[in-house]
Amino acid sequence: MKEVNRSIHKKEGMGLSMGKPAYTDDLVPQNALIIKVLRSPHPYARILNINTEKAEGLDKVKCVLTYKNVPRNIVTRAGQGYPEPSPHDKFVLDEYVRYIGDEVAAVAAEDEETAMLALKLIEVEYEILEPVLDFEKAVDNPSIIHTEEEAHEMFPIGFQPKRNIAAEYHMSFGDMEDTLENCEYVVTETYYTQAQNHTAMETHSCFSYIDIQGRLSIVSSTQTPFHVRRIVAEALGMPINNIRVIKPRIGGGYGGKQALHGELLSSLVTIRTGKPAKLIYSREDVFEASYSRHPMRVVVTIGADREANIKAIDMNILSNTGAYGEHALTVFMVAGSKTLPLYNKADAVHFGGTVVYTNHTPAGAFRGYGAIQGNFALESTIDILAGNIGIDPMEFRAKNMIKEGEGSPIFKIMGEGTEGVDMVMESCKLDFCMKRGLELCGWKQKFPRKQVAANKVRGIGGAIAMQGSGIPAIDMAAATIKLNDGGFFNLMVGATDIGTGSDTILAQIAAEVLDVSTDKIIVYSSDTDLTPFDCGAYASSTTYVSGNAVKNAAIKMKAQIEEIAAEKLGVRAEDVEMIDGVIKAKSRDASITLSDLSTQLYYSHKQKQLMTCESFSGEVSPPPFMAGFAEIEIDTETGKVDLVDYTAIVDCGITINPNLALIQVEGGLVQGIGMTLYEEVKYAESGKLLSNNFMKYNLPTRNEIRKLTVEFAKSYEPTGPHGAKSVGEIGIDTPPAAIANAIYNAIGVRFTKLPITSEDILLALRKKRS
Amino acid sequence: MINEITLRLNGETRTLDVNPLKRLLDVLREDCGLSGIKEGCGEGECGACSVLIDGVFMNACLYPVGKAEGKEVITIEGLVGTENYEVLKESFEQAGAVQCGFCSPGMIMAAESLLRKNPHPTEHQIREAISGNLCRCTGYNMIVEAVQLASKRGEGLW
Predict the structure, then answer these.
(1) Would you say A317 and A297 are in contact if contact means Cβ atoms under 8 Å apart?
(2) Domain with A112 in it: what CATH number?
(3) Nearest CB to B89: which of A14, A20, A708?
(4) What secondary structure, in 3-state letters, does A455-470 show?
(5) Is 0.85 exceeded by the ipTM?
(6) Which of B93, B104, B134 sits opposite A699 (nearest CB)?
(7) Which residue on chain A is closest to B94 by alpha carbon?
């Protein structure tokens, strides 16, 4: 391999570090109207009267939107494939507001000061309704959050709005009761996870304008430009052919930018006024009025026989989707579908539960997408069970975990909102990941604990995880490759680089096939008018799904080049080969450079444009796997917990770009560590989010992360592009369970609720002592 | 209220007619057309708007432009083209420290500020120095490595 498995620098890295205009807010036309949103101060209320006259009376105010003057088409902003597995329960603006931060009205003015002033001049009379703030009391609560008759599901997802249920699902095989009865060891535990915020450094941003052809153009920090185009058309009731969505560089997404945020309001302002308009979220907006991870209660029961074989797993979940049901069903299902196959030899498995509406900030897609919540519960329980059996927890895992060549009934039963696909693991190096991780972290010497000072104890703990590589049979990606004179290529992909470096790795995949250097591949991504379709950057799909589309397009391009070159050289197509930009006849001494061939093609001889377009939709979704090991140190006097070392060994097949893959894993780990130890979400009794800025919501900085060690297993996925699987999410999954297990091993206290703060540890230590 | 404010911006004297209470961040982005300075939080917590004011590392989102009267402001655009920047950018690129890139200009300013004060920082000092700059994409490892590389390569520059 020449271009693949090389740490080539990110194509745009230099431009970004120089601060060149690249992100949405850098590109806004100078005369754009500034949009500000009036947000609800109540968790649940009906707007009885709204008076916008004074606001509209301001000279520089050009447009005020309320539920009274916007189209009333119900959609889901989730940004998923179509038909969506999320309930349609959101209007552009509605007379009901369902959480503190929900949109009441939008003002567009010539400057920010006027827009802010106009918000203050809008008079709203609310009928305050009883909110549902405790997700465990949401089902059949007398207060019903979605009473609108237009709300509906696109296909059966268990949507029961009158019961505050956004989605419901159950599956099982085997006889649970009987199997558990015959188990020697059975553990049941309940876990809670919090509403983690994505906190991409670039806040949600978009602007819109009418182009010279009278069409609406939207520039947005989105992970899903093609879904944005479809949903804007649907919500505003306008023809989709009048909309263009452009994705510039993105300052991080992690799932938060899969859904629509400001695009609907911005588009409507532009349509109404004919003027460019921008809507840039403040950090407070991001916290209070965009999305979080779905908080969950997960109850897990695992049963094992006398020989420590896992026989039964039961997972019951109550998930909180907040005020709107974006990703309600699918995140919850992934909590099972991307954890339960890890232990694929169980005779009886049940997974099920309910996703409820509450009057909190909505939840949505977030890296890990349910798998991290499920993993925390499953992998913590595995350690408890191993403790009861009296076996080393990693040995217990090794004995029961999925191996190469094996499958799991779960793969076929559970997809994302629909049935899944049957799979056999063609690449699964979990055994290596575990063995190598145990060596690197010094498990033998450190397990379970070490007293390192009078008041300092260290503990070590581990967990394993799996994710996916796109959504099989649903996600589709396409790529177009164009040969230019001079012998270089354009690669046009719908795939959405959100800062991950996917433009670079997709170019590497094409370059590998075409046997040219990666700098000969100029990438344009994510413009709905100019690039082919791609579902977008989510579900760990880009490397595998988009990568396969690129590979297919490149193979076709190579064949076309060889065919034309063969004709020129007077040999048969199978008698030529393209190496390093030169097409040679194998049988005799004749060759032509790609540069000469392409220049002749466009200027002088048998003129013809070479361009290929290919698509890919996965029949399977080969999971990346990993084993993670956390070593923590606790000050038993103060409760202070420090992460001393995190070791992660990952199997993501061949790494197309080892450095970019490494950043994906390290970045995922730190987000997982943040969720486990630092990122506390606090609400006031009123339902107001208190942790709504970086002062109150603690992100890990470089000071909190002492040592991270990441290695990749040697692995090759036959169905992946050049042997690759995806790697975007897997890194985030293990920290919650591995750290909770390490803390237990250090001090003998089992934490089942995230985050686990130093304060929690101190209180637990005191309780234990007394 | 509009005042005349004169400052040195990236080596040039600029006179601006602005509200002295306007945030330096907005003045730099809107009035001076500089895109390298980013707004990540608006509260001095994330460091995406880091600049040097009379050599002192500051968050421009917390700095009213009126206070910059007569001072020297350096943004990433002012650093670009200097020898220091060449070393920093090569080190950041080689270490693979640029991911989504939104925090990178601020991170490079933090590195410049650190190396000016301390050309040979320890790993701990580097961590401390960049702890005011949030990055949500990486594990920070590459960023620390980048600063170490720059310190080594830029021997004598700072």
Answers:
(1) yes
(2) 3.90.1170.50
(3) A14
(4) CEEEEEEEEEEECCCC
(5) yes
(6) B134
(7) A9
Q: How many contacts (CB atoms, under 8 Å) link A and B? A: 159
Cα separation, A533 vs A526, whole angstroms: 8
Q: Which residues of B touch A250 (CB under 8 A)?
A: 100
From the list B99, B105, B90, the residue with the least C-alpha distance to B141 is: B99
Nearest-Cα residue of chain B relative to residue A203: B40
CB A226 within 8 A of CB A527: no
On whether both A466 and A511 belong to a single domain, the answer is: no
Helix H or strand E segment including B122: none
The DSSP line for A584-650 is: EESSSS-EEEHHHHHHHHHHTSS----EEEEEE--S--PPPEEEEEEEEEEETTT--EEEEEEEEEE
pLDDT at B53 over 90: yes
Write out chain B residues lying below 8 Å of A666, CB-based.
138-142
- pLDDT reported for residue A705: 81
For residues B136 and A667, the answer to whether their CB atoms sit within 8 Å is: yes
**pLDDT at residue A272, as a whole number:** 98
Q: Supply angle C-alpha A359, A105, A59, rounded to 5.
A: 160
A693–B99 C-beta distance less than 8 A: no
For residue B138, list chain A residues with Cβ-Cβ distance below 8 A.
663, 666-667, 670
Peptide bond into B20 cis (omega under 30): no
Quote the radius of gyration of chain A (alpha carbons, Å): 27
The pLDDT value recorded for residue A418 is: 85
Tokens 């006849």 sit on residue = A585
| Total tally of structural domains belonging to chain B | 2
Q: What is the pLDDT of residue A416?
A: 83
DSSP for residue A204 = P
**Within a domain: residue B111?**
yes
- A23 lies in some domain: yes
Residues of chain A with pLDDT under 50: none
Structure tokens at A358: 């509450």
Which of A395, A396, A393, A398 shows the shortest CA–CA distance to A383?
Answer: A393
As for how many domains chain A has, the answer is 3
Q: State pLDDT tens for residues B110-153.
A: 999 999 999 999 999 999 999 999 999 998 988 999 999 999 99
Q: Domain span at residue B119?
A: 80-153
Which pTM does this prediction carry?
A: 0.97
Are the Cβ atoms of A17 and B93 closer than 8 angstroms? yes
**Contact residues on chain B for A702, CB-CB shorter than 8 A:** 126-127, 130-131, 140, 143-144
Nearest-CA distance A22 → chain B (Å)? 8
- Identify which of B46, B104, B140 has the shortest CB distance to residue A705: B140
pLDDT digits (tens, 9 = 90+) for B68-80: 999 999 999 999 9
Bridge partner list, A173: A349
Number of residues assigned to chain A: 770
Task: Determine the average pLDDT of the residues in B65-90.
Answer: 96
Which tokens is A401 given? 């975990």
Give chain B's end-to-end CA distance (angstroms, integer): 41
- Does B158 map to a domain? no
Separation of alpha carbons A368 and B58, rounded Å: 35
User: Do residues A35 and A107 touch, judged by C-beta distance below 8 A?
Assistant: yes
> What pLDDT digit, counting tens, does each position of A176-229 carry?
999 999 999 999 999 999 999 999 999 999 999 999 999 999 999 999 999 999
- Residue A493 and residue A364 share a domain: no
**Boundary (domain end) residue, out of A570, A601, A616:** A616
Among A16, A670, A695, beta carbon nearest to B45:
A695
Kindly state the DSSP code that residue A25 receives in the 8-state scheme: G
Task: In whole angstroms, give the CA distance from residue A515 to residue A212.
Answer: 40
Which tens digits make up the pLDDT trace of A397-408?
999 999 999 999
- The partner residue sitting opposite B136, judged by closest CB among A16, A201, A702, is A201
Q: What angle do CA A480, A659, B139 make, to 5 degrees?
A: 120
Task: Classify A185 in phi/psi space as left (phi over 0), alpha (psi -120 to 50) or beta.
Answer: beta
